[in-house]
Amino acid sequence: MASGHLRHLVAGNWKMNGLKASTDVLDAVIKGHDAVLAARADLMVCPPATLLAAFAARAGGSTVAVGAQDCHAAAAGAFTGDIAAEMIADAGGKAVIVGHSERRTLHGESDADVRAKAEAAWRAGLFPIVCVGETRAERDAGHALAIVARQIAGSLPDSLPGDLVVAYEPVWAIGTGLTPTVADVAEMHGAIRRQLVERYGGAGQAVRLLYGGSVKPSNAAELMAIADVNGALVGGASLVADDFLAIAKACGTS
Ligand SMILES: O=C(CO)COP(=O)(O)O
């Protein structure tokens, strides 16, 4: 389908990992994202909030973008410990992950919360990376497609005010070494694409659909070659520059 032309985006979600010394990893990623690799895939690193400004300054002028892992829906206010999308933009971030399953599960975020955060991202001039995905029990019960369709419906607004990235991350594949079959990923990404096109028309064709969950150098080529997989959201392997770069190299080769 027309989305075949979309450039791959490989985004690293560092989660709650990384200290100032981890700038080494960012430096190696910037160095490794040479012209050959940059032609294949866009790269983004999403460090913890403490490193956001330093990483954005370091990556400034390079081909590597920096993003955040979460934001509050409000632009400012009495929300102790939270970070506004405007602050992420001010720190030099270009994007923000919203609705990661760890936020949905551990912080009780609903689809409505995720949608409000996505809208905050656009308000601040960022693009959201909206995460969806079913649990093992939901897949075993045959409900994976319905669960993800419901999350997509509830986590996105009626019209798109800007760029959008959606990440399909089956909860049971995160940090486990398990991945769905190629056929299951293809079925899910095809269904998400159809839903986005039904809802947004042509703009739905331009949404990059990332796969996330135990993406490694060893399985990246197979996963990145699937129709309607337009990149990866990488957890553990993004903390090791060589692994992260190897995943990016697996893009656009088929
Ligand atoms: O949650 C993830 C990225 O957001 C995936 O994590 P892993 O790559 O460690 O499985």
UniProtKB/TrEMBL annotation:
GO molecular function: triose-phosphate isomerase activity
PROSITE patterns: TIM_1, TIM_2
Cellular compartments per GO CC: cytosol
Metabolic or biological pathway, per its Swiss-Prot or TrEMBL entry: Carbohydrate degradation; glycolysis; D-glyceraldehyde 3-phosphate from glycerone phosphate: step 1/1; Carbohydrate biosynthesis; gluconeogenesis; Carbohydrate metabolism; erythritol degradation
InterPro entries: Aldolase_TIM, TIM_sf, TrioseP_Isoase_bac/euk, Triosephosphate_isomerase, Triosephosphate_isomerase_AS
Record's keyword terms, sorted: Cytoplasm, Gluconeogenesis, Glycolysis, Isomerase
Pfam families, alphabetized: TIM
EC number of the protein: 5.3.1.1
Catalytic residues, chain numbering: H100, E169
Subcellular location: Cytoplasm
Catalytic activity from the UniProt record: D-glyceraldehyde 3-phosphate = dihydroxyacetone phosphate; L-erythrulose 1-phosphate = D-erythrulose 4-phosphate
Matching SUPFAM superfamilies: Triosephosphate isomerase (TIM)
Binding-site positions, substrate: N13, W14, K15, G175, S214, G235, G236
Record-level GO BP terms: gluconeogenesis; glyceraldehyde-3-phosphate biosynthetic process; glycerol catabolic process; glycolytic process
Subunit structure: Homodimer.
Entry similarity comment: Belongs to the triosephosphate isomerase family.
Function: Involved in the gluconeogenesis. Catalyzes stereospecifically the conversion of dihydroxyacetone phosphate (DHAP) to D-glyceraldehyde-3-phosphate (G3P).
The protein, known as: Triosephosphate isomerase
The organism's taxonomic lineage, starting at the top: Bacteria, Pseudomonadati, Pseudomonadota, Alphaproteobacteria, Hyphomicrobiales
Gene behind the chain: tpiA
